[in-house]
Amino acid sequence: MSKRSATPRNARRPSVKDVAERAQVSLGTVSNVLNRPDRVSAGTRERVERAMTELGFVLNETARQLRMGRSNTFAYVMLDATNPFFTDVARGIELAAEKADLSLFLCNSDGRDARERAHLEHLQQQRVDGILITPVDPESAELERITLQGTPVVIVDRATTSGSFCSVTVDDRLGGRMAIEHLVDRGHTRVAYVGGPVSIGQVRERYEGACDAWRDAGHRDTDLIHVQTEALSVEEGRVAGERLAGLPKRARPTAVFCANDLVALGLLQQVISTGQRVPQDLAIVGYDDIAFAAGAAVPLTSVRQPRQALGRTAADLLIDEVNNPDHEHQQVEFTPELIARVSTLG
Amino acid sequence: MSKRSATPRNARRPSVKDVAERAQVSLGTVSNVLNRPDRVSAGTRERVERAMTELGFVLNETARQLRMGRSNTFAYVMLDATNPFFTDVARGIELAAEKADLSLFLCNSDGRDARERAHLEHLQQQRVDGILITPVDPESAELERITLQGTPVVIVDRATTSGSFCSVTVDDRLGGRMAIEHLVDRGHTRVAYVGGPVSIGQVRERYEGACDAWRDAGHRDTDLIHVQTEALSVEEGRVAGERLAGLPKRARPTAVFCANDLVALGLLQQVISTGQRVPQDLAIVGYDDIAFAAGAAVPLTSVRQPRQALGRTAADLLIDEVNNPDHEHQQVEFTPELIARVSTLG
DNA sequence: ATCCCGTTCTGAAACCTTTCAATGCAAGGA
DNA sequence: TCCTTGCATTGAAAGGTTTCAGAACGGGAT
Q: Cα separation of B206 and B222, whole Å?
């Protein structure tokens, strides 16, 4: 640990006024140099620019926004910044925003309602031009209120019954169906669904799709074991693994469909650590096909979602909503794809 | 795809002035209700608050900032938002910021210089109170300029020779040494270091630490094979694996130390896919100990860094720099820890 | 009745930028 | 010489908030 002196805090920052003074021109001219350089003669422009660098002028964006009423900034409120699925979605948004010359702020609600509310409040006060969000609760009145108050919102990866937003989703019900159909095809007859809490729309939808396929295969709904988790995390996957191991042998499933890859990876670790073989003793299907699924202890079969496209599309919808006066809200739905790997193929 | 009508864009948003008018009080009183409610009589306060909700008043933070000259907002410019190491660091920062009642914006430079510059420029213009950053190039004059112009900067996970910032690092040289010492202890005599580009400080430091340990073990520097990668990603890890496989059998290393876990995981996948056994045919050590390291095809030995503590400490330093008039810059260095798993233990 | 004090409320100034109507100026045409 | 035209520049107003010196008011003490 070494110590040094602190950054200067005293000096007021130079404003356009200071620049104008130094360059011997008026405020308006400085502003013109900044925003319409073509309207300024070469000589004065050069003089003004010199003054700017000499003073170390940094435009005060908050003042500009105040005057202009828009910020050219979007924000994406992520549900869980440590889940690679969402960072990939964020990347899609980022690229679209960059192309449109917009700044993007990422916020992390960390799955907590209170944190999400705080972020939304702050973003609205910051007057961002629009908000993309994967909400904790898509039906929250909060979101509706925000659009009513004039900040457009696009829902990412969540369905919503409200007509106040654009939304971009993947057909989770279909994804759930694909996972179970795959397991049924492989001959499994004792199958579990691992995921929770059911307050998460995805968890419900994937479960329903799973049930659909399960019934279509001639089974009874109630035969599909549902192991609830507290969250969709690696840790919860491990816990679920222990729960399964606790079942009497003949009630134990031969295959498991997990609500996402984090849960599947946790489950996989727990299962392997107890000496069971995957898929011989237990087949596992995950969801999302994050980059680490293919590199897992046993490469994971997973339902892939078009993550970047999801983000890009959401951003494009928001851009349209902001710029296009006769924008109409759209609900875009993508289709998932099953990627079969060793964890079910053996 | 269904369509609906757009969000209202026309209506000007209500300002304190509108609230004042409606509540039959002056501007100042509304401001007092907002900022010093105790100085306002219960009756008027209630009246003003009612007016606010009736009008759907949302405070204009940009105007407030303009007036106050501070924003109560930090930003963290991440080097790679898809690398779990950085999202964990971000989480540490987030928690510290939340505790101090500060908003945090995350930006992703994606390892690109241009994107980083754009973000920094924008943040500075936004007048954030401080910037945390894992820079593409810690020696960049850009960073120095920003502090000179009055925005404090804290460097996260990168060393810097400049005395203008606080910084928080982990002893990478020691980490590199630990990795190689571990491999030497396990009896390996043909070892490779995989990582690049060398323009990344980490890549260099870990390599140097590795060389130190290698020499101490009685080997010649030049015997430590250095396989360069273009980036620290899973994909580049795979490529490196192919390169190694291309070596003549007797020149091939029996153990590899990778500059981070993403590279190690990519390498691991490639190696396994060609039918080699880990660690019998090739032992692998990673770096960072991200959550997915333990759950890899072969659980990965890795050098763990205190990720959240890194972020938390960085945020605390920045908070001190912003609030404490006689703040002094500090360089905090954490110590890494080797976590041995199957990928080297067999 | 007068004075003083504390509480509550007021309104103008300041923060920094953009915009726009108006001004100044030089060159070209009549 | 006088007008016109077009370009370069100016300066005040506006945008929404906070601050602060001071006004208004009510009540208690004298």
A: 16
In terms of domains, do A298 and A195 share one?
yes
Count CB pairs under 8 A between chains A and B.
Answer: 204
Cis amide linkage into residue B279, ω under 30° from 0: yes
Q: Is B171 exposed, middle or buried (0-12, 13-18, 19+ CB in 10 A)?
A: middle
Question: Tokens at residue A319, please?
Answer: 């851009």
Domain that holds residue B271: 172-305+338-345
Overall size of chain B counted in residues: 346
Question: What CATH number does the domain containing B203 carry?
Answer: 3.40.50.2300
Could you give the C-alpha distances from A123 to A73, A106, A257, in angstroms and in order? 10, 11, 37
Q: How far is CA A45 from CA A226, B121, B276, in A?
A: 70, 21, 66
Rg (CA), chain A: 26
CB atoms A7 and B321 under 8 Å: yes
Total domains in the fold of chain A:
3
Examine residue B7 and state whether it is found in any structural domain, yes or no. Answer: no
CB environment B203-217: b (16+ within 10 A), e (fewer): bbbbbebbbbbbeee
User: Would you say residue A8 lies in a domain?
Assistant: no
DSSP state of A128: -
Chain B residues with beta carbon closer than 8 angstroms to that of A3: 328-330
**Which pLDDT score, from 0 to 100, does residue B273 have?**
86
Residue B2 has pLDDT above 50, yes or no: no
Residue B162 pLDDT: 84
Q: Are strands B329-334 and A3-4 parallel, antiparallel or unpaired?
A: antiparallel
Dump pLDDT digits (tens) for B199-222: 998 999 999 999 999 999 999 988
Residues of B in contact with A115 (CB under 8 A): 98
Helix or strand run (H / E) with residue B320: helix B307-323
Whether A121 and A213 map to the same domain: the answer is no
Residue at B3 is within a domain: no
Is B89 in contact with A79 (CB distance < 8 Å)? Answer: no
**Residues constituting chain A:** 346
In this predicted model, what pLDDT tens digit does every residue of A244-262 receive, in sequence order? 999 999 999 999 999 999 9
Contact between the CB of A31 and strand C at under 7 Å: yes
A214 plus A255 within the same structural domain: yes
Q: Strand C nucleotides below 7 A of a protein CB?
A: 7-21
Nearest nucleotide, CA B67 to C1':
C15
